[in-house]
Design goal:
alpha/beta, 7% strand
Length: 174
């Protein structure tokens, strides 16, 4: 599947879910609070160390919620190659380079504690405006306001709010 997506130069959006084995683990805490970020990190790490990201150079991967814990744990995730030569050989440019070429949306993430680690990993050219409306706790207006408060330049804000998506999906310009 990923080989065909790459051949088509596809844009692939990942949104987490909850595995049946991880449902109802903490009383009164919705599964999505813990399991969605873990599912995202698991997906990114699997694609990275399974070689999919390296082989999929023409695929544009977008991960929701600013990549969940990926930016915060990028050094930990990428550190495996120091201990495993086989993994290092599979990822010739290094894991961090692969994580930096991914795209991340702003759903539930237009907050300083989420944007700061993301901006340590990528530039605004890899960030896309996104919301989880109507399910998420941040509205479209709150997401836009959070981005504006963060202090992005007008040029970077335009990239995030519009131009990055149009570049990835030019047919939206019609």
């Amino acid at each position: 599947v990923f080989e065909e997506l790459n051949r088509r130069k596809a844009t692939v959006f990942f949104h987490p879910t909850v595995a049946p084995c991880s449902m109802d683990l903490i009383t009164d805490v919705p599964d999505s609070v813990i399991e969605f970020p873990i599912d995202t990190m698991r997906a990114v790490t699997s694609l990275l160390y399974g070689g999919t990201l390296t082989r999929g150079r023409d695929t544009k991967f977008i991960f929701s919620h600013a990549g969940a814990g990926v930016p915060l744990l990028a050094a930990r995730i990428s550190g495996l190659v120091k201990r495993n030569k086989r993994l290092a050989e599979m990822i010739p440019d290094g894991p961090l380079a692969e994580l930096k070429r991914l795209y991340y949306d702003t759903a539930l993430s237009a907050r300083p504690e989420t944007l700061a680690p993301l901006l340590q990993l990528v530039t605004p050219a890899n960030i896309l405006f996104g919301t989880d409306t109507p399910w998420g706790s941040m509205t479209v207006a709150e997401t836009a306001a959070g981005l504006a408060r963060h202090g992005f330049s007008p040029e970077d804000l335009r990239l995030i709010e519009r131009d990055n998506a149009l570049k990835m999906m030019p047919t939206l310009q019609r």
